[in-house]
């Protein structure tokens, strides 16, 4: 399936972890390149350069890059993608499998376990057990269902109420909202009352907390 020796690219945002793994893999006869990347551009540029058989990809690169978005572009370059991550939230790991990663390995595992997974990935064998894959994909499905359920209550708001809640999220007072919207304070107060009632909360603070924890914004569908 690959030329010998296999070429592996480690994409990691921690130099030390990458170095340790590189040494371990090299000792097993693999050709190993490392890119310490904190964004997706750097990772893809390195993969285009190296054309690896296997990319061992960190799920969280820097503050903002979610490695899940890199899986398909890396596969398009002909690489197999194995996630190596400190992330333990099952829905996120399930999303990696859904996006086409051959498997997931944890940074908490021993080098031996990670090496075994690398070997299996290069041979095209299952990296995680069927039960493990099922568990992660089920967690992803349930997470999506919960998200939908949490957001459903916000769909009961009228367009105007959504806008008002958006202003409240921005920390604006009823007075400011009234001034900026050219409506009376009484109108805004009754809109706020309607919002609280629909969301089943009894204060603006609680409405804000619910919106934040649900990941709602005025632009959420």
Walkthrough of the structure:
By secondary structure, this protein is an alpha/beta fold. It has two domains: 7-142, Response regulator (Rossmann fold), CATH 3.40.50.2300; 157-214, Arc Repressor Mutant, subunit A (Orthogonal Bundle). It is built from ten helices and seven strands. It has helices at residues 15-27, 40-50, 71-76, 90-98, 111-123, 130-152, 159-169, 174-181, 185-199, 204-214, and strands at residues 7-12, 31-36, 54-57, 60-61, 65-66, 80-85, 103-106. The strands form two sheets. A five-stranded parallel β-sheet has the order 2-1-3-6-7, with helices on both faces. It has a two-stranded antiparallel ribbon with strand order 4-5. The longest helix is centred in the middle third of the chain and has 23 residues, at 130-152.
Short description:
The protein is of the alpha/beta class. The protein contains 10 helices and 7 strands.
What is the fold's blueprint, element by element?
Elements: E1 7-12, H1 15-27, E2 31-36, H2 40-50, E3 54-57, E4 60-61, E5 65-66, H3 71-76, E6 80-85, H4 90-98, E7 103-106, H5 111-123, H6 130-152, H7 159-169, H8 174-181, H9 185-199, H10 204-214
Parallel strand pairs: 1-2, 1-3, 3-6, 6-7
Antiparallel strand pairs: 4-5
Helix pairs in contact: 4-6, 7-9, 8-9
């Amino acid at each position: 399936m690959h030329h010998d020796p296999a070429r592996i690219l480690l994409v990691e945002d921690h130099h030390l972890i990458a170095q340790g793994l590189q040494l371990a893999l090299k000792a097993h006869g693999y050709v190993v390149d490392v890119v310490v990347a904190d964004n997706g551009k750097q990772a893809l540029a390195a993969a285009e350069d190296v054309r690896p058989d296997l990319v061992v990809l960190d799920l969280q690169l820097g503050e903002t890059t979610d490695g899940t978005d890199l899986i398909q572009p890396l596969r398009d370059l002909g690489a197999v993608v194995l996630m190596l991550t400190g992330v333990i939230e099952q829905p996120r790991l399930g999303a990696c499998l859904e996006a086409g990663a051959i498997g997931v390995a944890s940074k908490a595992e021993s080098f031996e376990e990670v090496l075994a997974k690398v070997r299996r990935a290069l041979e095209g064998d299952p990296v995680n057990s069927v039960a493990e894959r099922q568990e992660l994909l089920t967690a992803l499905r349930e997470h999506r269902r919960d998200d939908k359920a949490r957001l459903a209550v916000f769909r009961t708001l009228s367009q105007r109420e959504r806008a008002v809640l958006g202003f409240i999220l921005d920390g604006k007072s009823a007075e400011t909202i009234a001034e900026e919207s050219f409506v009376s304070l009484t109108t805004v107060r009754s809109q706020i009352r309607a919002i609280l009632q629909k969301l089943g909360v009894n204060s603006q603070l609680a409405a804000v907390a619910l919106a934040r924890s649900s990941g709602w914004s005025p632009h959420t569908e």
